[in-house]
Structures are given as structure tokens and as C-alpha cells.
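User: New here, any thoughts?
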Amino acid sequence: MRGEEGALRWTVRFEKIFLVSFSSGLLGSWGVFLDWVSLGLLILGCIWGVSWIWI
């Protein structure tokens, strides 16, 4: 249960980072780069969270 809560917190945190970088992505190519980085982090965070739940 503890891992599940932690995963949820991390997912929410990554979603916030993603939204911020996505809105800044409208400003130029650097923002687009940040979009891909944050999207990668979001996916990694979800995978990490799911693996914690299964363990």
C-alpha cells in the first residue's frame, strides 16, 4: 500500500512537470526538448511505481 501511495505522488509530480514543460514548449524548440524529457520521466515514473506495487 505504501508503494502505491508513493507511486501516485510521483505520478502527480511528473504530471505537473510535464504540464509546465508542455506550456513552455509553445515558446520554442528548447521547450519541445523538455517535453520529451518530461514525458520520458513520466513514463519511467509510472513503470517504477507499477513495479513497486507488484513487489
Notes: The radius of gyration is 13 Å. The chain has a mean pLDDT of 73. The chain has one domain: 2-49. The chain has two helices and no strands.
